[in-house]
Structures are given as C-alpha cells and as structure tokens.
From TrEMBL:
GO molecular function, one term: phosphorelay sensor kinase activity
UniProt keyword annotations, A-Z: Kinase, Membrane, Phosphoprotein, Transferase, Two-component regulatory system
The reaction(s) this protein catalyses: ATP + protein L-histidine = ADP + protein N-phospho-L-histidine
Included range, full protein: 240 to 492 of 492
Gene Ontology CC entries for this record: plasma membrane
Record organism: Aphanothece hegewaldii CCALA 016
Ranges where the Histidine kinase domain occurs: 38-253
Enzyme Commission designation: 2.7.13.3
Signal peptide region: none
Enzyme class at the top of the EC tree: transferase
Protein name (database record): histidine kinase
Length: 253
C-alpha cells in the first residue's frame, strides 16, 4: 500500500488542533503507472518512424539541404533522440519494477567497471573542465556488469552536470564487512536536505528548471535505485548545499 500522510493545523472551538490525514493512494499510483506505460508504448512506434525519416533526410538521398535546412534538421534529430531516450527509460524502469527484466549476475572486475564508466564520460568531463579521479579496489564482484555500468555512468553524468568547471569528482571504492562501497563525490551545487530521498523517485528533480537547463528527465536515479535494489544493495546520497554531493552504492560481495 502507498499511503500519503499529511498534517494540518485547524482551529476547533477556539483551540488549535493538529489533524493527521492518511490518504491511501495505492490505486491512484497504479492507474498513473499504467497510464504512463501505455502512453510510452504508443509513442515508441511513431517516434521510431519519425527518426527513420529524419535519418533519411540527413543522408542526402532525397537531395541536399540548405545550411539553414541542416540546422533545423539537427534540432529535430536532437529532440527526437531525446524523446526516444525518455520513452526507453520509462519503459526500462517499468519492466524492471514489474520483474520483466531480470538482473543477469556474473563475475566482473570492479576496477574495470569503474574505468569503463570513467572513459565513457571523459569527453563530457573534459568539455566541462572537470577532473575525474578514480581510486578503485581491484576485486571480483558478482553483478550485472551492464546494469552496474549504467548506474555508474548515470551518477558520473549527474556529477558533471551539476558541477562547475575546474572542480574534481572522486570515484572511489572501499571494502567494508564483506560489502563493497562505491562513492562518487562531487564539488557541485549540492542537494537540499529535504530532497535527498525524493530525487530517487521517478520524474523528481531538485529544481523544476533542471530538465530544461540541464537536459535531464528525473528518471536516472529511479533507474539506479531499481538496479541496485535488484542486486540486494543500497544507494543513497549525502550532500551539503553549495559544497557538493556524495552518492554511495553498497553491494554485498
Ligand atoms: P536527471 O539528471 O535526468 O534530471 P536524475 O534522476 O538522475 O534525473 O536526477 C534527479 C535530480 O536530482 C536532478 O535533476 C538534480 O536536480 C538532482 N541531482 C542528481 N545528481 C545530482 C548531483 N550530483 N548534484 C546536484 N543535484 C543532483
């Protein structure tokens, strides 16, 4: 059951009373999820076809475009790709939550995974003049390497997005009591204390303008949490506003 609690102060015959309201929103959430996944499924086919047409235009097989035509086409391609990514993320999350995608665990090397994630984000970090420092522990872990890589790249991507140039990101590992702890620590803008839990929910962002200014959709952390929980692990963030954030991933060894 999903229950929403709220507290209200009311005045009853001259006395101030606290009213605790418990609202069962299980059915509302179920319908909301069903609606979002239905719409996403329906949007995927026309979007894929739209992308095919744009690719054809770009290839020049239908004739050459003017310079301004190419500019408009590139904007259309970028936005279509963004929509396809969004739809795929929604469907991915829904399939993971409903157990339609299972985690494929195998032996993989933690240092290799950290290295691969860092390499994937290196160009973006260089463009933002941000240095990523890795401090790996070379150990074999049992995990779904693709999904763990997806989690690391998501967190590194955010760390870069929400940091200023000339800052550093520290990506480190520690072994604690038969568990491995990965930490991605940035020196970015930080997250307010009342948002550190809610940002792991679907479509939640610290600032409503984040999706416009930073290009995100608020799905990345929800996907990360789903992946880590399917590994029987934990993911959380500790942050100081204006100083930076540390994202922690704890996995059983
Ligand atoms: P997206 O980045 O696509 O918006 P996420 O689920 O990955 O979605 O992140 C949700 C929100 O959490 C972001 O929009 C941002 O407001 C906040 N956030 C995530 N990582 C950081 C970070 N390293 N520093 C500051 N804010 C962050």
């Amino acid at each position: 059951k999903i229950v929403l609690f709220s507290l209200e102060l009311i005045e009853l015959s001259g006395q101030l009373c606290a009213l605790l309201i418990a609202n069962d929103i299980t059915e509302r959430k179920r319908l909301e999820n069903e609606f979002i996944s239905l719409v996403s499924h329906e949007l995927r086919t026309p979007l894929t076809s739209l992308m095919g047409s744009l690719d054809l235009l770009e290839s020049g097989q239908l004739g050459q475009l003017s310079n301004s035509g190419i500019k408009v086409l590139n904007i259309a391609i970028n936005n279509t790709e963004r929509l396809i990514r969004l739809i795929n993320n929604i469907l991915d999350l829904e399939r993971m939550k409903s157990g339609k995608i299972t985690i494929d665990k195998h032996y993989c090397n933690s240092a290799d995974l950290m290295q691969q994630a860092t390499e994937t984000l290196q160009v973006m970090a260089d463009q933002s003049q941000i240095q990523i420092i890795t401090q790996p522990v070379d150990i074999e872990i049992v995990a779904d390497s693709d999904r763990l890589l997806q989690t690391f790249t998501n967190l590194l991507n955010n760390a870069i997005k929400f940091s200023e140039p000339m800052t550093q990101i520290l990506f480190s590992t520690e072994i604690i009591n038969k568990q491995i702890l990965f930490v991605i620590k940035d020196q970015g803008r930080g997250i307010p204390a009342d948002k550190t839990e809610i940002i792991f929910e679907r479509f939640q962002q610290v600032d409503a303008s984040d999706s416009r200014t930073k290009g995100g959709t608020g799905l990345g952390l929800a996907i990360c949490r789903q992946i880590i929980e399917q590994h029987n692990g934990k993911i959380w963030v500790e942050s100081t506003l204006g100083k930076g954030s540390s994202f922690f991933i704890l996995l059983p060894l």
